[in-house]
Amino acid sequence: MISALFLGFLIGLQHALEADHVAAVASIVSGERKLGRALRHGAVWGLGHTLTLLLLGGMVVLAGEAIPEIWAQGLELLVGVMLVVLGLAVLRRLWREKVHFHIHRHADGVTHMHAHKHEAEEGRHDASRHEHEHPAGLPLRSLAVGMMHGMAGSAALILLALASVTSTPLALGYIVVFGIGSIVGMALLSAVIAVPLGYTAGLFTWANRALQGAVGVVTVGVGGTIVYGITVTDWGLI
């Protein structure tokens, strides 16, 4: 039993590194500058993922039947569309932002130059935008994205759980530790993504924008690949 649960935890860690998961969370944390906020986004993604797995996975394990393949494919299609939307949102944010520089001198004579990004809505500088705090509540978008991924990934997880575990309590425990592994894995991954973004935000604005642009393009690419694979390869709609 311990071996099965430990295996579930390790697979949960690896599960967080799948391309569509990385792309989704990267697009969410691309605008963050603080490590703590990025960690929270990753952990909440894993929480949403786990909640959905427990709900759907528990129903499937208790019923003893796997999710129909067409349902699983439909959920994967929704994930692909979601990734395209997330990636386009990153690119749209970059498109609306402007970068301009400010030079100011302190009382001790030291001169500093800062680069700032602002949305190009009003066409003028608003000093109040430099100092603001984001709400510290639960990041609902990360939770929703994680729940969607949980629905799309539940079929393969339940097939594995049913194939390797004969006890219902143990199967449910497997899902729980799998979810904990995905929470830990995604929180760590979010931190890894946030570090270069946060570093370049203060020193190299052009590099930061390039990184965010790459995240947006890759996210759209991953989502588009999923959509194409299901609609064309699997369903033959085109």
From TrEMBL:
Instruction: Point to the regions of Basic and acidic residues compositional bias.
Output: 118-132
User: Where would you find this protein in the cell?
Assistant: Cell membrane; Endomembrane system
Q: Which UniProt keywords apply?
A: Membrane, Nickel, Transmembrane, Transmembrane helix, Transport
**What's the protein's topology in the membrane?**
Multi-pass membrane protein
Which InterPro entries does UniProt cross-reference here? Chloro_ReproSupport/MetalTrans, Ni/Co_transpt_high_affinity
Could you give one GO CC term from the UniProt record?
plasma membrane
A molecular-function term among this protein's GO annotations: nickel cation transmembrane transporter activity
Q: Does the keyword rRNA-binding apply?
A: no
Q: Which domain of life is it from?
A: Bacteria
Disordered as annotated region, ranges: 112-132
Transmembrane stretches, start-end: 43-63, 75-95, 172-199, 211-232
On whether Cell wall biogenesis/degradation is a keyword of this UniProt record, the answer is no
Q: Which family does this protein fall into?
A: Belongs to the NiCoT transporter (TC 2.A.52) family.
Return the protein name: Nickel/cobalt efflux system
Q: Which organism is it from?
A: Pelagibius litoralis
